[in-house]
C-alpha cells in the first residue's frame, strides 16, 4: 500500500499495487465562520488536482482500491468533531463526487474524544457498508496499551471490531520483534500492516514475518511521492512476491505524500 500526497504528473502503477491512500483531508474554519474541507492546502475540486483525480480513476479501473486519509500531521480533527454535522456533510459530498473512493483511513495525531471517533466510524459503516476502515497508529500504540497521539488507547477501539486494518508506523523499528510485540499485545496478524518511510522496510523482515505469520496483513510506505516511480514499483514487486499468497491486505509501503497506501490482497 502506498500513501499518495506529494502529487506528480502521471501516477504509474503495476499489478502489485492493490491500494492507494490519498492524503490528506483536513478541516478548518473559513473567515465567515463556516467549516471547509481541504485536500492538503486546497479544496479537493481545485483545478490543480484535476490530474490527480484522473490518475486515481485510472488506478481504480485497474482494480486498485482508493482510500481517503483524514488527518495526519496537518490536523483537522478538532474542527471535524466540534462541527461534526457540517463537516460530515462536506466529507460525504466529496465521497459522492468521487465514487472511486471505497475506504477511509484515520490518522489521528491530535487529542480527540474516542467516543466521537467510534461514532464517526459507525456512521461511515452504516452509510457506506462496503467501505474499508483503517487507522494509522504509531507502532508503540499497538505494542502497548498506553495513550497514543490521539490521547486514547487503541485497544479500546479494537474491541469494537469496526476497523478493518491498522497501518502501523514502524518508522525506525521495522523489524520482527516490533511486529511480535503487537501480536503479544492481542492484535491479529492479518490486521496489521508494517509501515516504513519511502520503502526503507527490508524485504528480509517481511520474508521472516510471512513465514512466522502466514496471514500477516502486509506492508505500506510513506510515501510514493518521495521515491522515484521506478523505485516504488520495484519495491512493490519485491514485497508482492513475498506476500502474494496472503489472504487479505498484503500491502506495499506507507507513503504519506504521494501515493498513499497500496495494499496487496
3D structure, described in words:
The protein is of the alpha/beta class and 265 residues long. It has nine helices and eleven strands. It starts with a strand and ends with a strand. The relative contact order is 0.19.
Outline:
The chain is of the alpha/beta class.
C-alpha geometry: globular
Question: What number of structural domains do the residues give?
Answer: 1
User: Separation of termini?
Assistant: 10 Å
Level-1 CATH class name = Alpha Beta
Structural class: alpha/beta
Strand content: 15-25%
Mean pLDDT: 90
- Poorly predicted runs are 246-265
Task: Give the CATH superfamily.
Answer: Glycosidases
Tag the structure with descriptive keywords.
TIM Barrel; 265 residues; 34% helix; disordered C terminus; single chain; nine-stranded mixed β-sheet; alpha/beta
Amino acid at each position: 500500500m502506498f500513501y499518495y500526497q506529494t502529487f506528480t504528473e502521471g501516477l504509474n502503477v503495476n499489478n502489485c499495487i492493490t491500494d492507494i491512500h490519498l492524503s490528506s483531508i483536513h478541516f478548518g474554519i473559513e473567515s465567515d465562520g463556516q467549516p471547509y474541507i481541504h485536500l492538503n492546502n486546497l479544496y479537493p475540486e481545485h483545478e490543480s488536482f484535476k490530474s490527480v483525480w484522473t490518475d486515481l480513476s485510472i488506478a481504480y479501473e485497474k482494480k486498485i482500491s482508493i482510500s481517503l486519509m483524514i488527518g495526519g500531521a496537518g490536523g483537522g480533527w478538532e474542527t471535524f468533531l466540534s462541527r461534526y454535522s457540517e463537516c460530515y456533510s462536506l466529507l460525504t459530498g466529496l465521497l459522492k463526487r468521487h465514487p472511486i473512493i471505497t475506504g477511509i483511513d484515520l490518522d489521528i495525531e491530535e487529542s480527540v474524544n474516542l467516543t466521537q471517533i467510534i461514532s464517526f466510524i459507525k456512521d461511515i459503516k452504516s452509510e457506506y457498508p462496503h467501505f474499508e476502515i483503517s487507522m494509522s497508529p504509531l507502532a508503540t500504540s499497538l505494542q502497548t496499551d498506553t495513550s497514543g497521539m490521539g490521547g486514547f488507547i487503541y485497544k479500546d477501539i479494537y474491541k469494537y471490531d469496526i476497523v478493518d486494518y491498522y497501518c502501523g508506523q514502524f518508522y525506525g523499528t521495522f523489524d520482527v520483534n516490533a511486529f511480535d510485540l503487537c501480536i503479544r499485545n492481542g492484535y491479529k496478524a492479518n490486521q496489521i500492516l508494517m509501515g516504513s518511510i519511502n520503502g526503507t522496510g527490508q524485504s528480509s523482515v517481511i520474508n521472516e514475518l510471512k513465514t512466522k505469520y502466514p496471514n500477516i496483513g502486509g506492508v505500506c510506505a510513506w510515501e510514493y511521492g518521495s521515491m522515484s516511480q521506478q523505485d516504488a514499483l520495484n519495491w512493490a514487486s519485491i514485497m508482492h512476491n513475498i506476500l502474494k499468497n496472503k489472504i487479505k491486505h498484503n500491502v506495499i509501503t506507507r507513503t504519506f505524500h504521494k501515493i498513499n497506501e497500496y495494499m496487496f490482497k
